[in-house]
Specification:
57% helix; 164 residues; globular; 5 strands; alpha/beta; Rossmann fold; five-stranded parallel β-sheet
């Protein structure tokens, strides 16, 4: 890992990391069956090595923050997990969800924010919750840039993939 990432991990290790839905689905699929990463629609742009990098980063934090919006997206994005594995995958999700610090922002509050017209509901909730309290880990260039522009620390995971 690079110095900048290590400094952010040190700063937020006990405060928390908020992982966006595209990366969190990669994390959960990788924990469940890493060999499935290249074959699932929602994770095929990532590699098993990406999962290991993501896991090393996420596991560095004692607090993992999420939102009901992100968790709903995770279950919706799991639609291409093969039917014969879906029940086991959802059972794994159920136990994993217990380990997350789930925080809620009313949809009306997120929709009233300046970020809503640019990013929609789920990412606007991330903006509201992270607001200088948590490190955000995302694979979305625009969201990472916006968060940094409003003073919230954010890492674009794609930049980390390029430097390894």
């Amino acid at each position: 890992m690079n110095e900048y990432l290590e400094s952010l991990i040190a700063k937020y290790r006990t405060r928390g990391v908020l992982v966006d839905s595209n990366l969190l689905i990669l994390y959960f699929v990788g924990e469940f069956a890493p060999e499935r990463i290249p074959s699932l629609c929602r994770t095929k742009s990532f590699t098993v090595d990406d999962f290991h990098l993501l896991k090393a980063i996420v596991d560095s934090f004692t607090v993992k923050v999420t939102t009901p919006n992100i968790l709903t997206e995770i279950t919706n994005l799991s639609d291409d997990v093969p039917a014969r594995l879906r029940e086991d995958f959802f059972l794994r999700l159920r136990s994993s969800f217990q380990l997350l610090d789930e925080q809620y922002v009313p949809s009306a509050t997120a929709a009233a924010s300046a970020s809503f017209p640019k990013f929609g509901l789920s990412d606007s909730v991330i903006v509201e919750i992270a607001n200088q309290r948590y490190l955000v880990l995302t694979a979305e260039f625009a969201l990472a840039g916006y968060l940094r522009s409003v003073g919230t620390d954010a890492i674009n995971f794609n930049n980390l993939r390029r430097i390894r």
